[in-house]
Batch of 2 targets.
Target 1
Amino acid sequence: METADTRKFKFRDKEYPCCASLTMGIIGGKWKAVILFHLMNKTLRYNELRKTMPTVTERTLSLQLKALEEDKLIKRKVYTSKPPLKVEYSLTDFGETLIPIIQSIADWGDYVVENYSK
């Protein structure tokens, strides 16, 4: 009989019971994967990102962006040279490693719509 893998997975001082749990702990929830999807191929300002997700509240978007930044998946660049303040978000090199996963999630969503939404 096989025994369960008792290895713990740690990331940023948190422990996860398995690698899938770690991944979902980082990108799970309603908005993180959506944010990453919109940043896959371009840098966006806060308001541009907000327009791509009209149903997200400003507070939620801010919190999710902060969490993604803390996990080093996105970078926030602030331009203060002239008013008004300009803030841009883009994927880090670490965040870019998620592109195949996020693209697969998006492709699966397209597949569901095409084949099962009738």
Note: The first helix runs from residue 19 to 27.
Target 2
Amino acid sequence: MTQTRPDLDPELRSLLADMPLSSELSLELLAQIRQIPSTPVGTLLDGRAVERREVTVARPDGARIPLSIFSPQRADRSTAAPCVYWLHGGGMVMGDRFSQIDIPLEWLERFGAVVVTVDYRLAPEATGTTLVDDCYHGLLWTAEHAAELGIDPARIIIAGISAGGGLAAGVTLMARDRGTPAIAAQVLICPMLDHRNTTTSSRQYSGEPGVWTREMNAFGWQSVLGDLQDADVPGYVSPAVAEDLSGLPATYIDAGTAEVFRDEDVAYATRIWAAGGQSELHVWAGGFHGFDALYPHARVSAAARRTRNNWLTRVLTSPSPS
């Protein structure tokens, strides 16, 4: 039985009417989706004063993880730039390092930030902590090469959307626990945080086609977790089950009222506050999952992006604590 649920924003509903939607995800459908070419990154770079560099980072298991580095062209390199370490979305089963890259590229232009984006391995081919470990090792490489990249190591921000938001939260926990590298802030955009998939909002967005439904979410999590029992799921993989959320950097979380992840995202912000941390939370009325990535020019999307940018402005210009 379908539960009552918040309505979509009228403008978003109109835009979404032309999008082919599904209610479930399968291995067969995933294979088809992965064959759809993504927008060439060169198209996204047209008209931007950006320098691009490609590197690969060796993992202890022998895998090589690609990183793309986008730096603003600037004559004066005497001042180190902030860095945005970007983790793409895609339910942990699809997407690549250029997915949703327009979001951090806006920060490159606005803040002069160096953007580093990572091609972490995807489930179901990679499982358990592999995805978050890939992201962490890419972050370590970035911090270790900060001087070479023109990055201020005190202003590294980790950001991600959807699955990338969940991975960003997991990497931030991992960096806190291992003592390195320092992360100035985390930006979690409609993050995928809780493998249990049992919140009210997850049940509300079940049984009908959507951008990301409870059934799709179950497929994504099962692809990552494999045979792991619920009690054995690490907090680095499913940050909602992490016991300790103290000692985290400044955190920004946003979501829509009309999406699966709404309640787990609100709960994560609440737990950060309970642990004495700072988290700014925005839940946008009528927003479906990833609304501002799909339709950035809709009024509610523009408001969400503007609010996120304003928060980052405050974070990047605030004096360091003494």
Note: The first strand starts at residue 50 and ends at 58.
